[in-house]
Amino acid sequence: MQAISTFSLILSLGLAYVINPVEDSFFFKAIDGIISGLYGQDVFDELNNSALAGILVGLFSGTMFVFLTVNKKVYDYTLISFFTIIILIFVASFRGYDAFPYHVTQQLFLWFWLGLPIAVGIVGIWQDSIGNLIMAAFLVLVMPLGLSGNTNDEIIYILGFVFSFMLFIELSYGHTRYSRL
User: Fold this and answer.
1) Non-local CB neighbours of 35 within 8 Å, separated by 6+ positions
2) Contacts of 76 (CB under 8 A, 6+ apart)
3) Among 34, 37, 40, 28, which residue's Cα sits nearest to residue 113?
4) Exposed, middle or buried by CB within 10 Å (0-12, 13-18, 19+), for 82?
5) pTM of this prediction?
6) Of 83, 129, 164, 180, nearest in space to 119 by CA
7) What is the pLDDT along the chain (181 residues), one digit of tens a residue?
8) Which candidate, 10, 27, 15, 32, places its Cα nearest to that of 146?
9) 3-state secondary structure (DSSP) of residue 25
């Protein structure tokens, strides 16, 4: 039940980005506007906006988080290490120290942001967390939204998205609900 729910979550996010590409999404236009205002240049236009790479990074990070929570000590040390690395990169950017190329970190940030619903959803499915399931469902619905209209040729993708999204909701919530009995 959990494996099918995870697969349907991945399929629904993939179909959502097939229906409405990343470049047309309100979320990414807003992030591009903020980053362009901060850096004074179009950063996201130079990056690879691959939804497949984002889904794979989300799958990897969500699975890694689930495996790390099995052992509490390893989980705490990993979180402290990630937090320290992020703070050091942030401080280095303000001090002008460029030991790590920012193009790589910006690309990883974009791919992680694209795969965030997958990472949150995997944690919700495999750790029986209803809050994470709600957040993943919200992000899958909201992140690909844009103003571009759809044609009749995309009806198969739209129906596939609706079916896989409903399958994700039903199976993940059903497992979470009945695992607590």
Assistant:
1) 43, 44
2) none
3) 28
4) exposed
5) 0.80
6) 129
7) 889 999 999 999 999 888 888 888 888 888 778 777 776 666 666 677 788 888 998 999 888 888 888 777 776 777 788 788 878 877 776 777 766 666 777 778 888 888 899 999 999 999 888 999 999 999 998 888 887 777 788 889 989 999 999 999 999 998 888 887 6
8) 27
9) strand
